[in-house]
Design a protein that fits this description.
about 210 residues, alpha/beta, Rossmann fold, 5 strands
Length: about 210
């Protein structure tokens, strides 16, 4: 974790080799009440970032050594899922578009309004928080899925598809009462109230 920052607090990493720009952006974000971690290079950012730390990264696309595009690729390789906002000069717009297509959530062309940056950073924090909650839910549902027997998993798949008990019994070549028993156990173990909720859980588990 970033030192002295409570777990779960979003951190905005400002990654720019230009000290004046880096400090100005960090100051403006800090005055807006955001927790900021300035980084002078991609290497500094990679040394400071933690996959468990929520927030976002504001990255200059042109930096010596590892540039913004290469940093995006390295973040992906390391499992750093922080939303990326690219900042770019006029001549870097085509590269910024490539960064956007590679997963950046936004790019801002210099000079830009600092209030716009704050707005985009807050949007990135919200996006990151939503993604982390969804990932946490999926992990919990996969844990519950492990509690099911192989037959219960089969029943769950068919219930989630909307099949009635009679068709499930026919497809699995078991009695309807047996299907009802398995169905009740699946709902209990998965914490689902009904078939619709079970279907939503199945979609969450299967989501990439």
């Amino acid at each position: 974790m970033t030192p002295d920052i409570p777990p779960g607090t979003p951190v905005t990493f400002v990654v720019d080799d230009d000290e004046a720009v880096r400090d100005a952006l960090a100051l403006h974000l800090d005055l807006a009440g955001l927790v900021v971690r300035p980084c002078a290079s991609a290497a500094d950012f990679l040394a400071a970032a933690d996959p468990a730390q929520p927030g976002c990264a504001v990255i200059d696309i042109r930096m010596p050594g590892m540039d913004g595009l290469e940093l995006q690729q390295e973040m992906s390789r390391r499992g750093l899922t922080l939303p990326v906002i690219i900042i770019t000069g006029h001549g870097d717009v085509p590269a910024a578009v490539r960064a956007f297509r590679a997963g950046a959530v936004d790019f801002l062309q210099k000079p830009f309004d600092e209030d716009l940056l704050i707005e985009r950073v807050k949007e990135a924090h919200a996006r990151d928080g939503a993604a982390r909650r969804a990932n946490g839910e999926a992990a919990e549902l996969r844990r519950r899925l492990e509690l099911l027997s192989p037959r219960e998993r089969e029943v769950m798949d068919l219930v989630a598809q909307g099949l009635p008990n009679k068709l499930i019994a026919r497809q699995l070549d078991i009695g309807i009462r047996t299907v009802e028993t398995h169905r009740a156990r699946v709902l209990e173990k998965m914490g689902a109230r009904n078939a619709s909720e079970l279907a939503r859980m199945q979609m969450t588990i299967d989501a990439p």
